[in-house]
Amino acid sequence: MTPYRTALVTGASRGIGAAIARKLRGLGLAVHAVGRDAAKLQALCAETGCIPLVADVTDTEAVLRSLGDAEIDVLVNNAGAVPAVAPLHRQSAAELDAAVDVNLRAPLHLMRGLLPGMVARGRGHVINIGSTAGAAVFAGTGPYAAAKAGLSMAGRVARYDLAGSGVRLTEIVPGRVQTEVYLGAYGGDAARLHDSMYAHHRALQPEDVAEAVATALCLPDHANISVLEVVPTDQAVGGYVYTKRD
């Protein structure tokens, strides 16, 4: 069992974040679930007993204020966005900024805000949900890939800074997961997204990523998974090669 008591999970109203929130509640943690979709967040919280926090994760000061005096042991930086899949020179300034704000700036600010309490208590765990796009080439994802690569490097530095503090940091690196993270890049067309990315390939499910998070949290406190890559059996990440279903 995990030694932790209270978690903050971003992007919790759907997909990977909702699966992680459910998993952590099953492990007995109190979970503050952050998301923008109030209806889906309320439904999740009614189902699981999570504490809803309706907010845009990029407004990190509002998120931190909403926690009040809660002592967060586990920070799961899961919220992600792929505003566009196109060459960098064809992306708008707003799309570029959104990719960096959600995938890099917000996680770093939440770490900055919550790590002091973890260090003071000598107990804590940061889980950053990365992406194989942060290390392998996936055409058209320049800002997203750069943000995920930056978060990965920030985590590597943080492990040095946190060594001996009792606070652990794990990066979970999923391959293709069947979620709505690319929905914005497909103009909100869920059917086209499914046909393009999931209909012909066996993808990970959000629950697979949640299991990886639980594995890291449940290790004895002298052990830490620094980086854990979880990919579909049919995916070869280095060149983004997938085998198709028959």
Please count the helical segments: 7
* Order of strands, widest sheet: 3-2-1-4-5-6-7
Fraction of residues in helices? 40-55%
Q: How many β-strand stretches? A: 9
What do we call the CATH homologous superfamily?
A: NAD(P)-binding Rossmann-like Domain
- The CATH C-level name is Alpha Beta
Q: What is the H/E string?
A: EHEHEHEHEHEHHEEE
> How many structural domains does the protein architecture include?
1
Strand content: 15-25%
CATH architecture: 3-Layer(aba) Sandwich
Assembly type of the chains comes to single chain
Write down the Rg.
Answer: 17 Å
Structure description:
The protein is α/β, with parallel strands linked by helices. It has a single domain, classed as 3-Layer(aba) Sandwich (Rossmann fold), CATH 3.40.50. The protein contains seven helices and nine strands. It has helices spanning 15-26, 38-48, 60-66, 93-121, 142-162, 190-198, 206-217; strands at 6-9, 30-35, 51-54, 74-77, 124-129, 167-174, 227-230, 235-236, 241-242. It is globular. 42% of the residues are buried. The model has no long low-confidence stretch (mean pLDDT 92).
